[in-house]
TrEMBL record:
It comes from the Eukaryota. Transmembrane segments: none annotated. Residues 225-267 are annotated as: Disordered. Residues 235-246, 258-267 have a biased composition (Basic and acidic residues). It comes from Schizaphis graminum. Residues 1-109 form the PH domain. This is PH domain-containing protein.
Amino acid sequence: MEICGTIDIKVPAKGRKFGSWKAWKSQWCEVLKNENRMIINIGPSKGNVTSCLAVPNNAIIYRIKSRTKAYGFGIFYAGQKEQQPCIFLAGKSETESQKWMKSIRDVLKPPTTNIKTTNEYTISIIDNEHSKAAGLTGLYGTLSVKSEEILVTDPHTGKIKVTLHWTQIQCSYLPLPAVSDDLHRVCTIRTNSKFKAGDGDLELYCAEADELHNELLSCPRPLPRIATTPLPPTPKDRQTRYDHWTAADSPSTTPPRRLLESRRMSRSEGDLKKFVMQHSAPTLRSAGSQQHLVLVPRCNDLGQKVPIGVYEYIPNVL
């Protein structure tokens, strides 16, 4: 005997010939291994078997959606386009249902005795619409957290079933369960638009869900690839502000003072004249040197001359 106990059972419509009830009913259930198939004995109490069901070894087990049972799961015949159910069962919590599911899976296909290493966790997906859209119905196995990706391998063959890249994962969290037995037993991975089924939640049952969650948070992820373009060539050093001047632009002689006094000037030139009258007199009387007033066309930072009438005052010491 592999597993036994009291559990809620519902017989599909096409298989009710071996059961007299049409809704969920608490029954004693025994799961046995018999050569190339599995035997499920059902009865109202232990030792009182009233029904027997043979299940082939290629049967598939996954969670179902029920209006009255939050933790229901079914055993389905494989190899058919539309999988026909053998029987439905439901525990009182996610932990109880997953315990039955694991035991039945081990009876159908015994796992290999591989020792788990660091960053490996035994998981079973809690099927929902998002996992079905991604083609992950009934997924279970060993989850490995790696720096490049997340892998789920088959516990019987060791082959990779699913590969999740970090770029497809938005975050992970531990949901608050409705039953205390499920505390720290469910870890939810939220996928983003890069996942094949888009945005959604993948709910994983794991006895070490808190450790799995911490591993997902602390695992170093690869840096995102950034498309780069070659840097532009280094521009030549800008020429000095006087490089563009010609001999005609740069005055070689000092403008006569009477020309400045007699010529009608613009407002900017008048301001310049006032500035010259206030500052040039003390400078010209300094002993030991002869100074001249040089008016130079003003340029901006790009070496371009500003409009006529704006000059710079540069003392020319001879």
